[in-house]
């Protein structure tokens, strides 16, 4: 049997720092759009519906 092999040393804090790249930025943009787009479309759709209803009532 082989003797117990110790684990490699853990990364130093400098090496373990998270460094975002362009993929993380794209993921952040997609997440922001997925959170902000539905309420924005709901507000714009409601506004368009109100304008259409008011223009129909004023005729």
TrEMBL record:
The chain crosses the membrane at residues 25-58. Keywords: Membrane, Transmembrane, Transmembrane helix. It comes from the Bacteria. The keyword Transmembrane helix applies. This is Uncharacterized protein. It comes from Meiothermus granaticius NBRC 107808.
């Amino acid at each position: 049997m082989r003797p117990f092999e110790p684990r490699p040393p853990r990364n130093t804090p400098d090496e373990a720092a998270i460094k975002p790249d362009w993929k993380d930025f794209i993921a952040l943009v997609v997440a922001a759009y997925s959170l902000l787009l539905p309420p924005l479309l709901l507000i714009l759709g409601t506004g368009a519906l109100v304008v259409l209803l008011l223009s129909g009532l004023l005729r």
